[in-house]
Amino acid sequence: MDFVQTTFASFISLIPVTLAQSLILGFVVLGIMIPFRMLSFPDLTSEGAFPLGGCVCGVLLAAGASPLTAIAVALIAGFAAGCCTAFIHLRFRIHTLLAGILMMTMLYSVNLRIMGKSNLSVFGAPTVFDWVPFTQPGFPASKIVAVGLLSLAVFVLLNIYFKTERGTAVRAVGANPDMAEAQGINVWAATIGGVGLAGAFSALSGAVMVQSQGFADVNMGLGILINGLAALMIGEAIVGKQSVLRQIAAPFVGAIVYYQLVSLCLAAGMPPPDLKLATGLFVLAMLALPSLRRSRGPAPAREAFRE
């Protein structure tokens, strides 16, 4: 009983911190979802674009740039990284996963070149959280308000965009690129733009995370892809993926639930090194579940046919 009470009390105390972190990392999950679901373009660039955004933001903050300028430049850098991945795939006919691996690998060296070292402290630099009224800068409340409003704005704008003619064209390319091209849609532009947008959101997450934690590190994206996939699976299981609205909501809902579950596991005493194993097994189970259901489905039909 004491163990349950202690675990619950520890979990409750961590909710504000994990909620702020999950909202920030929700943009990475969004950056994973857009190529994966909207474009049928499995991509690994997020694991390189996330630290890219953080490194760019950290260097600019250290140089005295404003927080918004640092975020804007990080967005542009992430967009360029995503565009490069899509171009490698389209121009050289390289598989999407391999193109993402190549870009992710190259971005590690790029991030080191940008910062000039493996990590950079920006403690004391101004952040976007300093501008939130009625809250203390640096505390979870200011982060939850700032990132919550940003998430809401992105959610609304993306929902509007993917229902416009250009947004529908991106979805059409993901559904059937040959048919989309026959309808006069520029497949290259839609693919490069969509993957670039995903890279921009991943870089945005990295930039905001650096402002939240006060330092940038070239290894800050290690494992972020598998965490993002787990969050996406949870979000889609909760809200579904049958409409554009649900597809956009799933990353944010999934990120919130996933990181609360991680917090609960840590509060219950799970060793932190075991979290990666647990996350990988969870994603494997979620991906294998539809296949297991299909393999069980035809059996009754075959028996009925024999009768």
From TrEMBL:
Pfam families: BPD_transp_2. The chain crosses the membrane at residues 12-36, 71-90, 97-116, 144-162, 187-208, 220-239, 248-269, 275-292. It is found in: Cell membrane. Keywords: Cell membrane, Membrane, Transmembrane, Transmembrane helix. The keyword Cell membrane applies. It comes from the Bacteria. It is a multi-pass membrane protein. One of its GO terms (cellular component) is plasma membrane. GO terms for molecular function: transmembrane transporter activity. InterPro entries: ABC_transp_permease. This is ABC transporter permease. It comes from Borborobacter arsenicus.
